[in-house]
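can u pls check wat happens w/ LXAUTJHC
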Amino acid sequence: MAREQLNSAAYSWHAFAERQDLAAALAGHVAGRLTNAIAERGTALLAVSGGTTPAKFFASLSSIPIAWNKVTVTLVDERCVPASSPRSNAGLVAANLLQNAAAAARFVPLYQEAASIEDMSEADSRMLRSLPWPLDVVVLGMGTDGHTASFFPDADNLEKLLDPSSAKVVLPVHAASAGEPRLTLSLARIVRAGFLALHIEGEDKRKAFESAMASELRKPIRAVLDAAERPVEVFWAP
Ligand SMILES: O=C1O[C@H](COP(=O)(O)O)[C@@H](O)[C@H](O)[C@H]1O
């Protein structure tokens, strides 16, 4: 595995020939980190992303027999839709991760009934503050536009989303390119994770990642790598 140092952004590149091999390897790393956290503090806090990429990884992780009853799972971000929607990240997690051994985990979603997405993010922040922070494991995804979590380049409040000193836990996102209003963990909460992984697949995303690392135009994914307290572990397959 190659280890890259780019100015302040440090990351390790883990490339796999097959997506299923990536899924199994990432699942093994995550399960190991969760087990270590449980041994150290009696609990583990995991935040995962949604979209289309993680399904194989979720399925691999769900069958690894760790002490899932001591694991709390939440989302890095969520589309502002109910779990029954095909766009729901919570729905993806329920169908693919919270199965098999992992069905014993506690899941804390981000979508809840509220008068507005601003009210929803405030209610989420109140609800999530009681979780056993800091995050032990975060698994990020990335779009070809360089967004990660719901930090979209055209978000109305991108500076606030990417503020590494923010006291906020969950923030609302309005971005024309996002498809619908979003909820996202703040960058400040994400970058303090004990293990921060980025899971991307396909040539387009490899090129987008390399471009984001090389570009002077700081894409959101670069902001996360720059602020991360530990080198980000990038898992990629064609
Ligand atoms: O909209 C989202 O996009 C990213 C990337 O999704 P993918 O489908 O390209 O893997 C995802 O990480 C995020 O959770 C999701 O809300």
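The mean pLDDT is 95.
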